[in-house]
Amino acid sequence: MRKPIIAGNWKLNKNPKETAEFVAGIKGKLADATKVEAVIGAPAVDLQTLIDAAKGTDLKVASENNYFEDAGAFTGETSPKVLAEMGVNYGIIGHSERREYFHETDEDINKKAHALFKNGVTPIICCGETLETRKAGKVDEWVSGQIKAALKGLSAEQVASAVIAYEPIWAIGTGETATPEQAQEVCHLIRETVAGLYDQTTAENVRIQYGGSMKPANVKELMAQPDIDGGLVGGASLQPESFLELVHYQD
Ligand code: 13P
């Protein structure tokens, strides 16, 4: 059975003080960790504070980006090796904002996935289409292409342990959520793509999140879909109250 995983993605929000305040606000209130995994992805400058504050809780920590080299002359980059040493559990990679504003390619994302696995950090690999691609009827082709490129060269065992986040770009930060049926359809397609690339067992183990205006009001119906195993949440993860409501969606 796949354990549901609700992950916040704070994007470029919060400073260390606000990070510590957030953790103080959720301490002792998270859902049963045997039933749902709770993760916060924070800016690199907040990660140490987040890790320290989360000690003794079941909260897991994610980075929002990393470089694919561990060390060297790469000014301004974030080492996956150091993220692992710090105790970061997950690494969000290939977010549509990274692809759009920082020109990340499928090849970069694949290298980042390899670098995270090499260091023992589990990637959360993002994919998703624009409204234009959806209107052109090319969602399947686009998303399966992103997945094939991102997973290139990874072992079945690695993929089985990974998380894939389906985030339709038109639903991010817009308040417009994909319907549960739309989200399910693409999450199912992603699982089928993994089955085709690897095998049924790998496909049944990989966890697939939906992201795009997930909030307390729609989390239940999204999570009820058979191929949706979690959420990657922007806006609704910023306040302890709404994050707690999301992780308690089963209660
Ligand atoms: P919102 O939940 O704010 O739409 O953001 C989704 C997202 O991009 C998470 O990575």
UniProtKB/TrEMBL annotation:
UniProt key word Isomerase: yes
An example Gene Ontology CC term for this record: cytosol
Catalytic activity, reaction form: D-glyceraldehyde 3-phosphate = dihydroxyacetone phosphate
Signal sequence coordinates: none
Enzyme class, UniProt record, top EC level: isomerase
Residues of the active site: H95, E167
Subcellular location: Cytoplasm
Chief location: cytoplasm
Binding residue positions for substrate: N9, W10, K11, G173, S213, G234, G235
Keywords: Cytoplasm, Gluconeogenesis, Glycolysis, Isomerase
GO molecular function terms noted in the UniProt entry: triose-phosphate isomerase activity
Pathway(s) served: Carbohydrate biosynthesis; gluconeogenesis; Carbohydrate degradation; glycolysis; D-glyceraldehyde 3-phosphate from glycerone phosphate: step 1/1
Function comment: Involved in the gluconeogenesis. Catalyzes stereospecifically the conversion of dihydroxyacetone phosphate (DHAP) to D-glyceraldehyde-3-phosphate (G3P).
Family: Belongs to the triosephosphate isomerase family.
Subunit field text: Homodimer.
Protein name in UniProt: Triosephosphate isomerase
Organism from which the protein derives: Loigolactobacillus coryniformis subsp. torquens DSM 20004 = KCTC 3535
